[in-house]
Every structure is written in structure tokens, then in C-alpha cells.
Amino acid sequence: MNLETVLEMLRGGTGLRTHSGAVTPGDVFVALSGTRVDGARFIDDAVARGARVVVHGEGVDVPRHEGVSCLAVQSPAQTLGVLARAAFGTQSNLPRIIGVTGTNGKTTTAHLIHFLLSRNGMATGLVGTVHCSWPGVQVPATMTTPDCLSLHEIIGRMVRDGVDNLVMEVSSHALDQERIAGLPMEVGVFSNLTQDHLDYHGDMQRYFEAKARLFLDGPARCAKGLVNVDDEYGQRLKAMRPDLLGFGLDSEDAELRCRILVAGPGGMTLGLSHDGHTWELRTGLVGRHNAYNLLSAVGTGLLLGLTPAQCDCLSQAPGAPGRLERVPNERGLDIFIDYAHTPDALEKVSVALKSMGFKRLLTVFGCGGDRDASKRPLMGEAVARHADVAVVTSDNPRTEDPDSIIDQIEPGLANARLVLRETDRRKAIALALEAMEPGDALLIAGKGHEDYQIIGTQKRHFSDFEVVRECLS
């Protein structure tokens, strides 16, 4: 059995599986080396369920099975990308793909780029944290970047529906696990790198190395890209690959520069410059972090051949759901919901709200369970620096004790002006609303667009937006 034979089978409609429990008679099974479990352990189960071909790593001892062919490959994860393109029809007419990575800003940046390309007449798809969508279709997202098979299946549907551009959030997990195998990136965008996911990567260097795969030599390397050179890690990427377009608000080395000319509760006016040209962009989005997000979108447009005038439509872009999103209410209260769940994101969104001239800032926040615990006091510190009232509560506690998580946050709140502790998130939001006074702003951070809360191993319906409306009614 050789690779081309397997590809012909898949083009002819043979099923492709990576989970032995999903195998049906005649399928091709790829045994991936997972982060927790080695897929080679399930080859016998896949064969028992009818797998006709088994693709596995070199050096894996696979017992002979009558009527079953085996194919040993150097990288099953990379080979899966090649096989998936044959199985889901993404071998030809693949959209031009823009991959957005970084710790914070991925979702808003991806939505802004999607808006920009769509407004310029391009049939554009979006794969990200909030949802996967393309003209006429929207499906819920289960993770920032789907697994390789699911991703190719979605893109296959996009191809059949005429999508010619795709904007994709690319997580560090996805890059490390090669979920984007078989999907060449036309443009890569690097927003920033701050502490997150160290429970998975171990340290910041390995976290950076995972993100850098999108830009440096290797299968995931983008053809061209742009990096935030105001960010320490963005500077490192630029030094490693000088052809990347550097953007920023502060760095003299940025080829695409931005100055915030006017900022207030109603939005910002940005002054942009690139390649000898200067122009202004007005936006209803607020905060320095959104200036970076808009700059990323403009930079992507320029790399794809758009003119500054064609990028002006970004003045009408609404941003992304659950990202510093105002909750309309009859009382006229200034209530904002944001997905911020890292120290840096909390810092940036807090600074944005403080700059808008509110009397006080009240912040409801927590930390997720079964995730990087070292960032918990740091998130407390970020809130303490800016909030007049900090309401610490549960996020998605998962299998951890919610009170134990809060105990780990509280050292960071040592210098906070006022701390209210309420483990029940619904009650915490109600408590914050009761404490609001005219002229205050309330930030409810951590969950953003999510309409669930994970307690134990159960996902229960919970929406910050709905809770606010219920409390106010």
C-alpha cells in the first residue's frame, strides 16, 4: 500500500477516521500520537470495526491482519492533512487562507478581517472561537481551531459553496498538534504573546515556539505575514523573518504605524501611515487594544492587495461578539461584557474603560479551573490596578473547587480598593449591579460570548448577557 493508492480510495468516497470508535467497514484509520493517548493503541479496535487501511508512524509494531493494509509514515499528523484534502475535496480550489494567532485579540482581529474582505466583495469564510461561518451558513464553534478532520470538512463545505477567502483563528494548541496540516497559509498575523496556556506548554519559550510555527520554516509557514513589533515576541519573530510586515503604535521599526488621534466613549480616530502614505480611520471601537486589532486588519488588507481607501470600510466594523460589548438596557447603565481571561487582556480592557472617563469601574471576574493556575494572582493584580470595586467569582471551575480558585486569585487583590467575594456567578453579577452608581461602568469579564458554564464535567447554560437582563428586569 502506498500513499497515492490511499488518496485514490479517499477521492472515491472511502471514509477517513482518527477515532477508532467512529470507524465503519472499509475506512482508512490514521493512528495519531495524541497529547494524552497514542492512537496506535487503538489500531486493533479500528481493525475490529472494519478499517481497511491503517496509517501509522514509523517504528510502530502493527500485527498483521488479513485484508488490512498498513502504511508507515514519518508524521501521521502531517499525512492526515494530505489525506483530509482528498477526503473532503480541498485538494483544488482551496480558499486563500489568513491565519490569526497570538494570546489576545485573535477573535476581534479575525472578525475585522472577515468584515474587510466581505465588504470588498470577496466570498469569505470565518473559523474561530465564536462560530464558523460563510455566506448563508453559521455553525457553532466547539474550540478556537477545530481538529484537522473537522477543519477540512468545514472548508470542504466552504469550497463547494464558492468561498474564496478564509480567515481562521489559529491557537497554539492547533499549531502544536498540527491541526492545520494540509492547509497552506497565505497570510499569518501575530497579535501578541502574554502568559496563558502554560498548563499545556510548560513555559513561555515553548508557548512562543508553538505560535512561531505559523511564520518560521516548517509545514505551517505562511507565505507572508505581519507581526506586532511593539510586542517583545513580535520583535523576535521579525528578527527571525525580516520580510514580515511590522506594525505598531510605538516602535520606530514598524512599517505600518498608527497613532490614536482622538479617543472617547464614542470611539477613536486613528492616524495611519505606510510606505509614504498617511490616512485616517474613524471607528466606533474603543481602547488601545482595538487600535492594534484594526491595524492588524488593515495590514492584512494591504498584504492582500487592497488600498487604504478600500480599508476605510473598517470604520463601520462592529468588532466581535462578547468583546467589550455593551449591554443595552432601559436604565442607561454602562455595562460591558468581555472575554478577557488573561492578565494582559484584563489590563487592556480595564485601561480602555478607564480612559473613557467613567466615575468608577466595577469588575466582575474569575479564573477557569483545570487551566494555568500561575496566572490567577496576576489576574487579580490586573483588576486591582484599575477597578474601584473588584467582584471576584467563578468562571468555568470545571473539576476544581471554585472557592479554592478564588483563594488563589485573592493574593493579587491585596491592593484593591474594595473586594467583594461571591462564588455564585449569577449572584456576583447581581451584587455588582446593585453596587453601581450613576456614571459608573461595569465590566463583566472572562466568558464573553459563551452561553455556558462548566461545573465539574457538565456544561450548563449560562449567559452573562441574559443574567444582566434578568437582574435589571
From TrEMBL:
Residues that hold UDP-N-acetyl-alpha-D-muramoyl-L-alanyl-D-glutamate according to the record: S20, T144, T145, S171, Q177, R179
Cofactor(s) this protein requires: Mg(2+)
Tree of life domain: Bacteria
Residues reported in the UniProt entry to bind ATP: G102, T103, N104, G105, K106, T107, T108
Keyword Cell wall biogenesis/degradation: yes
Pfam families per the UniProt record, alphabetical: Mur_ligase (PF01225), Mur_ligase_C (PF02875), Mur_ligase_M (PF08245)
Residues annotated for meso-2,6-diaminopimelate binding in this entry: R371, D395, N396, P397, R398, G446, E450
EC numbers, comma separated: 6.3.2.13
Organism annotation: Desulfomicrobium apsheronum
Gene3D superfamilies reported for this sequence: Mur ligase, C-terminal domain, Mur-like, catalytic domain, MurE/MurF, N-terminal domain
Mur ligase C-terminal domain segment(s): 322-448
Domain Mur ligase N-terminal catalytic: 15-85
GO cellular component: cytoplasm
Gene Ontology terms: biological process: cell division; cell wall organization; peptidoglycan biosynthetic process; regulation of cell shape
Chief place of localization: cytoplasm
Annotated family: Belongs to the MurCDEF family. MurE subfamily.
Catalytic activity: UDP-N-acetyl-alpha-D-muramoyl-L-alanyl-D-glutamate + meso-2,6-diaminopimelate + ATP = UDP-N-acetyl-alpha-D-muramoyl-L-alanyl-gamma-D-glutamyl-meso-2,6-diaminopimelate + ADP + phosphate + H(+)
Key words of the record: ATP-binding, Cell cycle, Cell division, Cell shape, Cell wall biogenesis/degradation, Cytoplasm, Ligase, Magnesium, Nucleotide-binding, Peptidoglycan synthesis
Function: Catalyzes the addition of meso-diaminopimelic acid to the nucleotide precursor UDP-N-acetylmuramoyl-L-alanyl-D-glutamate (UMAG) in the biosynthesis of bacterial cell-wall peptidoglycan.
Subcellular localization: Cytoplasm
SUPFAM superfamilies assigned to the protein according to its UniProt record, in alphabetical order: MurD-like peptide ligases, catalytic domain, MurD-like peptide ligases, peptide-binding domain, MurE/MurF N-terminal domain
Signal peptide: none
Protein name per UniProt: UDP-N-acetylmuramoyl-L-alanyl-D-glutamate--2,6-diaminopimelate ligase
Pathway: Cell wall biogenesis; peptidoglycan biosynthesis
InterPro entries in UniProt: Folylpolyglutamate_synth_CS (IPR018109), Mur-like_cat_sf (IPR036565), Mur_ligase_C (IPR004101), Mur_ligase_C_dom_sf (IPR036615), Mur_ligase_cen (IPR013221), Mur_ligase_N (IPR000713), MurE/MurF_N (IPR035911), UDP-N-AcMur-Glu-dNH2Pim_ligase (IPR005761)
Lineage, top ranks: Bacteria, Pseudomonadati, Thermodesulfobacteriota, Desulfovibrionia, Desulfovibrionales
